[in-house]
Design a protein that fits this description.
By secondary structure, the protein is an alpha+beta fold. The chain is 46% helix and 25% strand. The protein has 5 helices and 5 strands, in the order ααβαββααββ.
Length: 122
């Protein structure tokens, strides 16, 4: 339906003897208005706690949160995905399993690390 209206507008402009420059200017103005409307629309924030449903590219990013339990000090802290990726170190199999959503926790010498959630705007 929108495409049909657009074609009718183009036909009307061509029949009204407007110059090509004016047609281009009007088209650019319409595109600008639609882009501006899309930018003003509020974006939806997503909060995913299941690692299997989280986007792979966001698991080891700043948008993801991991819980760290220090076994020595018996303390609990939170880190982002970039820091969690550094904690996997050279354990490529653990890194790949986390990214594919096969596991949500892993262990280092001093800590237990668990995926908590990823938050992003859609």
């Amino acid at each position: 339906m929108k495409n049909k209206d657009n074609n009718n507008d183009i036909e009307e402009m061509l029949l009204s003897n407007t110059s090509l420059d004016e047609l281009i200017k009007k088209k650019i103005e319409r595109e600008f208005v639609t882009e501006l409307e899309q930018a003003k629309r509020p974006k939806e924030k997503k909060h995913i706690t299941d690692i299997t449903k989280a986007p792979k590219n966001l698991i080891f990013s700043r948008q993801s949160v991991f819980k760290v339990f220090n076994r020595i000090n018996k303390s609990e802290t939170y880190i982002n995905g970039v820091q969690a990726e550094a904690l996997t170190g050279t354990q490529n199999s653990i890194h790949d399993k986390l990214q594919n959503g096969e596991i949500s926790t892993f262990v280092t010498k001093d800590a237990y690390i668990k995926f908590e959630y990823v938050e992003f705007y859609e």
